[in-house]
Amino acid sequence: MKNSALVVGSTGIAGSNLAKELVAQGWETYGLSRNPSKPLKGVHQLRGDLLDTDSLEEALSGINPTHVFFTTWMRQENETENIRVNSTLVRNMLDVLSLKRSVAHVALVTGLKHYLGPFESYAKTGNLPETPVREDQGRLTFPNFYYAQEDVVFEAAARDGFTWSVHRPHTIIGEAVGNLMNMGTTLAVYATWCKERGLPMVWPGSREQWSGLSDVTDARILAKQLVWAATTPAAQNQAFNVANGDVFRWNRLWFDIADWFGIAAEGFVETIRPLESAMTGIAEDWTKIVKTHGLKESHLERLISPWHTDLDLGRPLEVVTDMTKSRKLGFTAYQDTRDSFFDLFKSLRTGQIIP
Q: Which residues form the PRISE-like Rossmann-fold domain (predicted)?
């Protein structure tokens, strides 16, 4: 039987890049989201509400996917609500699909908050893992919606007999509009604003992140690992870290990014200077930039997530990801991190998101 993929959250950074990869590899590909917007070539777009089983049953009528990829989540006011809502959306989908008896594999995308803690306790003193983070490091004692989602998948797998994989990317770099966590586009908008105002890009994070080692995950690399794990027997029923494969220091990359935009930059100077504070009140400026340059997205909130960028860049430790587990099993994809950012910036410019 031909592989048939259902990408849950197909309009986001992870989901849209995964959908493109699946189509390129010849899969029958369905993409589900609440509000399908930009069409993806070769993807059958479905509209459905993950918190409404009737909506899901209607969206999936006559569709029997062999592989399901969860690449979305819904941000709530606190971790208790994150757990309730984000475990429910996974459970609802798997309950609806259970009746079809078609699913052979389910993949879940989570992230390094598995090791660093949920938003409310993220990378706090006393909650700092040994780095590089490895998949065999156990769960933290803090409640975490990633753990709740995993447990739902594990329970459904035991019930329905499918295999599973869990994927833990570092910060995902890729193109998407309306995404909840989007460091690459946030930095592109910030650099664009700095250039228009004649200001330098000011490093918003911690000393440790500025001078320590780091890595990120290109959305295209994540997509390749998701497909690899779904089709590799040795990768079944396991969790995998996923990053580009190189490491870098922000104290060099920050200036490289500023050079790409043709502006000056400032590094760490004794204190954290949050990006969320720096970008507060720039909506009016962005409206003018959009009008001046004929850009396509005037709603700033659909492009930036400075709160999330501040979380990552403000961590009190260097964070790198151990990829040994998947490497030993044959996953060898690699991506230069500078190119991850520069490819994104070029794409945003071509798509008239930035000038």
A: 66-355
Interstrand relation of 28-33 and 105-109 (parallel, antiparallel or unpaired): unpaired
Question: Looking at per-residue confidence, does 321 or 125 come out higher?
Answer: 321
* 46 bridge partner residues: 32
For residue 40, is pLDDT > 80? yes
CA gap 296, 279 in Å, rounded: 20
Residue among 198, 183, 204, 214 at smallest CA distance from 261: 198
The pTM score is 0.95
Can you say how many angstroms the Cα of residue 131 is from the centroid of all Cα atoms in its chain?
Answer: 21
pLDDT at position 1, please?
61
Residues involved in catalysis: 113, 146
More confident residue, 122 or 320: 320
What DSSP string runs through 281-335?
T-HHHHHHHHHHHT-S---GGGT--HHHHHHHHT-SS-B-B--HHHHHTT-----
Q: Which residue ranges form the domains of the chain, and what is each CATH number?
A: 4-169 (3.40.50.720), 179-214+247-317+336-351 (no CATH)
Coil, strand, or helix at residue 32? strand
Give residue 113's pLDDT band: very low, low, confident or very high (50, 70, 90): very high
Quote the DSSP letter at residue 111: -
Residue 122 has pLDDT above 70, yes or no: yes
